[in-house]
Amino acid sequence: MSMLEIIDFGKQFTIHHLGKTRQAVKEINFNLEKGEFIGIVGKSGSGKSTILKSIYRTYLPDTGSILYNSDRFGTVDLFKASERQILYLRKHEIGYVSQFLNVMPRTTSRQLVEQALLEMGEPEEVALSEAEKALTHFELDPKLWDNYPNTFSGGEKLRLNIAIATVKKPRLLLLDEPTASLDQQSKLKVRQIIEKLKVNGTTLVGIFHDIEFMEGLCDKVYDMKARQLVREAGVSNEG
């Protein structure tokens, strides 16, 4: 089967104090083979992040199925997977990069990247070496490696967030505006990592407002307004 298949997916939110329900997304359908990259485009509020958070199971879908081809569990409907399965998948198979960095207090940036590898069972010396390579690639100043990231700038936090997620070489990587606050040089670093992950078989789902960044990178683009899949990046004007 495909690495990821989304079938008739829909999600609504209830605004309890107003007694109202809002339909965030509906009738979403697409699939990805191993190593493919789909970019999701659309206006703010169109439900792009809702799709990613539902794949990651931060949100529970209301309708449809999200089928993921797990290395350990086989075909899993992420809608129905157990909490134990979801925790395993997040730790070992599915990565998520958001615009925001949520980290444990009193943990340095070097330790955060190391921990991502240690929890996968990598030896300490490998985790240390790979962490330093990742931090170097994303040009995080070595003076910051042993500092707590709550003091970092927005761009530094985002680069660290990307390093933590990509160092694990996940089977499926979800990217929620990963270049939002980055300069052009840092964007190129992100692109290099994405290209390398694709070559090694990682499947990716990403949200970008920077359509130029997607050119030649995505295999497919899903347009939220049209609710349809297109093959060429840059076809949709919505962003």
UniProtKB/TrEMBL annotation:
Q: Which residues form the ABC transporter domain?
A: 4-239
Q: What is its main location?
A: membrane
Task: State one molecular function term (GO).
Answer: ATP binding
Any one of the GO CC terms: ATP-binding cassette (ABC) transporter complex
- One Pfam family assigned to this protein is ABC_tran
What membrane topology was assigned to this protein in its record?
Peripheral membrane protein
UniProt subcellular location:
Cell membrane
Looking up InterPro entries in the UniProt record yields: AAA+_ATPase, ABC_transporter-like_ATP-bd, CP_lyase_PhnL, ECF_ABC_transporter_ATP-bd, P-loop_NTPase
Supply the alphabetized keyword list.
ATP-binding, Cell membrane, Lyase, Membrane, Nucleotide-binding, Translocase, Transport
Q: Which family does it belong to?
A: Belongs to the ABC transporter superfamily.
Protein name as catalogued:
Phosphonate C-P lyase system protein PhnL
Q: Which organism is it from?
A: Oceanobacillus zhaokaii
